[in-house]
Design brief:
Layout lengths: L6 H11 L2 E6 L7 H15 L3 E6 L8 H17 L21 H4 L3 E4 L8 H9 L4 E4 L36 H13 L4 E5 L2 H8 L9 E5 L14 H8 L6 E9 L7 H19 L6 E8 L8 E4 L5 H10 L2 E4 L8 H8 L4 E4 L4 H4 L6 E4 L4 H13 L1 H18 L2 H17 L1 H5 L14 H8 L5 H10 L11
Helix pairs in contact: 1-15, 2-15, 3-18, 5-6, 8-10, 9-13, 11-14, 13-14
């Protein structure tokens, strides 16, 4: 006769079979690509039998007025110090919350962090790990291992400590090194599993100073999406819904923000303009059938090419725009595993993309689409002209694109990989419990010269000190209330 398991052992077995996950993020819902990717994962996890709770910064009541004023000063100082290198988001490690004691965290078997800038910093993450729960940190950009930039703009300072940041003016250029050092100290010596959607971002985190090879691990699990929603559809019907002419070659350009320089929309516009000029040279007025569909915040105008701007739209409208398009063009200079490319391929829309970031992992040159060099206007234009001239080539690429999406980006496959990883981490949690998380390494004292270099003239010196001071008093708690 088999003896029943004690309650504690039964609880461990159930946790490994159907782990309870808590997904933490600054924003949920449709608030950017990271939030969309997390929502898709949460939906797939629940449909796969996982117990998932979501905790985002949107769930907390408004902070006290004093703290909000200081937060605005911090953001304003960073914004004013930005150099022309990039206008992609740049954040400090303050403000941050202490969430290790939150009921959704304490009730979870595994904690899955997503995009947590402004919600959690490295010290708060260390507290969650110290509470005995395995932590999976899903990377949506480079911020978890840099001193503030969400994309490095070609800089490799994160591999050596983020000194002399090229994205900030001199008066704040030393701040990223301090942020990176705090992150390195707080995350050192604790078990932590990074999950990267792309092999490119996995390589970047592994060579950063934040990554501790003795106890950190990185796995590659591509993002997924609902392949029933993002699927090929009748082009004529989609164009009628968008008020577009049924004839002609349509190119889709889309992003959360059309003004983000990292996305290089101006370069994409130049490639389309160059292609239109070449088509006019070859075919005369027939080239007028070339049109562009755009979506996202901002406007994009291409002289001599008809543009239909959809504005900021939801997933349903994006799917229709892709079904109406013959091609998706992205000239991004840096990207992880962009939703836009994945969605296009799932809808059977071939892609022209740069060789940056995770693009080569999504598009095989000459198969589902074409790869060109970063800022290669002529190369992208030549690819557009080729597709306009050879409809059969585009149709074959469209079929291969859909097959690639079905093979690699099914959300149910992504969910199963996460559940398997959670079970694996829970199986090894007993050995970790016997080795408690050591206290973080204390920061080394600054020399007088270093102190002057860090603080002198910095507009963040006062606000950051006051912001940290506020966190010591209960009425200004950054915790669960």
């Amino acid at each position: 006769m088999t003896r029943p398991l004690p309650p504690s052992d039964r609880r461990r077995v159930e946790s490994r079979e159907r782990p309870r996950l808590a997904c933490l993020a600054t924003h949920a819902g449709q608030a950017g690509g990271a939030a969309i990717a997390m929502r898709r994962l949460v939906t797939a996890l629940r449909e796969s039998g996982g117990h998932v709770a979501v905790l985002s910064g949107d769930d907390f009541q408004a902070a006290p007025a004093a703290r909000r004023r200081l937060e605005r000063r911090v953001r304003r100082a960073i914004r004013r110090a930005r150099t022309p290198l990039s206008n992609t988001l740049f954040t400090s490690d303050w403000p941050a919350r202490r969430l290790a004691a939150h009921p959704l965290v304490t009730g979870a078997d595994v904690v899955n962090l997503h995009w947590v800038a402004g919600l959690l910093n490295a010290a708060g993450i260390r507290e969650i790990v110290a509470s005995g729960r395995p932590v999976i940190w899903t990377l949506h950009d480079m911020r978890p291992f840099t001193g503030g930039c969400h994309y490095a703009g070609g800089c490799t300072g994160f591999a050596s400590g983020c000194h002399a940041c090229p994205q900030l003016a001199t008066r704040l250029a030393a701040m990223p090194a301090r942020v990176a050092a705090r992150g390195r100290r707080a995350l050192a010596g604790i078990p932590l599993t990074f999950v990267s959607p792309s092999r490119w971002l996995a390589r970047e985190v592994a060579r950063s100073t934040v990554f501790d090879r003795t106890c950190h691990a990185v796995r590659v699990i591509p993002n997924g999406l609902d392949l029933a929603h993002f699927a090929p559809g009748p082009r004529a019907a989609a164009r009628r819904r968008l008020g577009l002419p049924e004839a002609g070659f349509a190119i889709l350009l889309g992003s959360v923000s059309l003004a983000e320089r990292r996305k290089a929309m101006a370069v994409a516009a130049g490639a389309v303009s160059h292609a239109a000029d070449e088509l006019r040279h070859r075919f005369g007025k027939a080239a007028a059938s070339l049109q562009v569909i755009t979506y996202g915040a901002g406007q994009l105008e291409i002289p001599g090419v008809a543009c239909r701007h959809l504005g900021s739209v939801g997933e349903a409208e994006v799917a229709v725009a892709l079904q109406a398009s013959d091609l998706h063009l992205t000239m991004a200079r840096e990207d992880n595993l962009p939703n836009t490319v994945m969605e296009a391929l799932a809808c059977g829309c071939p892609v022209i993309a740069t060789t940056a970031g995770g693009h080569p992992e999504m598009v095989t040159d000459g198969c589902e689409g074409w790869l060109v060099g970063i800022d290669d206007v002529a190369g992208a234009a030549a690819a557009v002209v080729r597709l306009v001239e050879q409809p059969a080539l585009r149709a074959a690429a469209a079929e291969r694109a859909r097959r690639r999406a079905e093979a690699e980006w099914d959300a149910t496959v992504q969910a199963r990989r996460y559940l398997d990883l959670a079970a694996e981490l829970l199986a090894g949690s007993g050995s970790r419990a016997a080795n408690p998380v050591p206290p973080p390494v204390a920061p080394a004292a600054l020399t007088p010269a270093a102190a002057v270099a860090v603080h002198a003239g910095s507009p963040l010196r006062g606000p950051l000190r006051r912001l940290r001071r506020l966190t010591r008093f209960p009425r200004f708690s950054l915790g669960t209330n």
